[in-house]
Write the structure tokens for this entry.
Amino acid sequence: MEKALKKKKPGRPTDQVKRSAIIDAASRRFFEEGFASTSIEQVAADASVSKVTIYNHFGDKRALFAAAVEQECEKMRGYFNLSEMPEGSIRERLNVIGEAMFAFLSRPEMVQFERRIAAETEHEPAIGHAFLQAGPWRMKAAFAEFLAHASAKGELNIPDPLLAAEQFVSMAKGMGDLERRFGATPTEEENERRIAGAVDVFLAAYAPR
Amino acid sequence: MEKALKKKKPGRPTDQVKRSAIIDAASRRFFEEGFASTSIEQVAADASVSKVTIYNHFGDKRALFAAAVEQECEKMRGYFNLSEMPEGSIRERLNVIGEAMFAFLSRPEMVQFERRIAAETEHEPAIGHAFLQAGPWRMKAAFAEFLAHASAKGELNIPDPLLAAEQFVSMAKGMGDLERRFGATPTEEENERRIAGAVDVFLAAYAPR
DNA sequence: GTTTAAATGAACGGCTCCGTTCAAATTGTC
DNA sequence: GACAATTTGAACGGAGCCGTTCATTTAAAC
């Protein structure tokens, strides 16, 4: 289907390697320096590409930004295959999941990405929405399903899995999330304490009986 | 002490009304459009002031931004006098506190402010740090003290008030915090459910016995 | 009224940047 | 090799903006 369409155009085809080099360079610049402070010329230099090529491919600075966001969201969708659920007691499993989520969300690139998306959301609400759908909402649904499953098996007793999912993740991130966003870096020990504390409180509220 | 110093200078004094008009206008522009996208000329127009006056007062675009951040942080420090603790059962009090915090934090101006501070923190970590100290860390300390007090009176049983404070606030904000940051607006009903849920889980974990 | 300093308006230099144009070079496909 | 489309480099117009200069006006304090 797609291959049939590819063969239509005569002449030199667009260089997809260059295209993704452009998006990569753009992502780096945009999410490090912000939309307004990033210049197309700089992106072109980073990608070893002519500025005109960028305009041929994307036409617009905003469109390039959108493409960068789209790629990053796509990455997120890919990364988040928590399908391999861990073994062990429910307490152990919650701990592992909490740590996995935490590791995923506290990566500096992720913090950077979130900062920029939030900032640009002010002018382009659609961007924030796309991010929510590709990331947080997806994750919440998946985790809620896990909780519902555990609840059905009698390992937990959760009346509202969606709410419970939020509560667990929120506690695990705790204030560390906020601190990272504003440049402070919690110690590894604090991180552990937050996750362990989240598991404790969560089980106190939702363990059967 | 200060009045004595005031009388020192002869000639026309600097117009403090204009000064605060400048800071107000700058705050609005900076926190709506970001640092890079805000022009001094526009701020000058908003404040009905000459551009040169701004440079006389602040000398620099960054300094003006710093002044705007400082003022906003000062406002936060002022607003946050949760000294009047509510009456009623511990459950009722937690509910009231949760709603007060929530109302304070979910105001659109606050969301906007946080977005911008986070974005600028990338280049100026000191700004993020100043915000953390003026806002979140202050609030956390105050709330933890409340919890410790209630714990000492036997109304709660909390081994680690600082951690517990984080947990409660994090659950009360839940994912709504994140959603607002990315442009989605949770319904009033969702907000209520999150606060009520936070109180439930919190008490399940930390009620005496 | 005199003094002293702040505020204003206009203009400027210098810089950055977006987006476009054009001719020339490159590179795939038939 | 001929075709057709992309890529490149350079240059340009136009715009916006920072920060400064300067002569002029305004206004408080003595």
